[in-house]
Design goal:
about 20% helix, about 15% strand, globular
């Protein structure tokens, strides 16, 4: 199951979608559209999830801190985007590879970051 909303902030997404409580694995890519600290919204989204969570860190380093901190608190994994488009946000992947490939193996197209 995929739930996606282009251009949404972490706060808006967290309060719009609370996540599937029975999910065994959840991949989250949020933070790139945040203008302020999104720690509270990210925690609100993460807290009810009992399964494995993998966070795709925002491309901009200054937006990574809240996500890294939360992932560390929950023992979640993080991955980074190895290269981005000219906009500095979206992954540079002209072949349209899907984020869903992350789970097998994690880091096939993204570099694993220690968390």
């Amino acid at each position: 199951m995929t739930v996606a909303e282009v251009g949404i902030t972490s706060e808006d997404f967290a309060y719009f979608y609370r996540g599937p409580p029975g999910a065994t694995q959840v991949i989250v890519s949020l933070g790139s559209n945040d203008k302020h600290d999104s720690s509270g919204a990210l925690w609100y989204l993460r807290q009810p999830i009992n399964g494995r969570v993998i966070w795709i860190l925002p491309a901009r380093r200054y937006q990574q801190a809240p996500v890294r901190k939360l992932a560390q608190q929950f023992g979640d994994k993080t991955v980074t985007i190895p290269s981005v488009r000219r906009d500095g946000v979206h992954p540079a992947d002209s072949r349209g590879r899907r984020i869903s490939r992350l789970h097998s193996p994690i880091g096939q197209h993204l570099a694993c970051a220690a968390s």
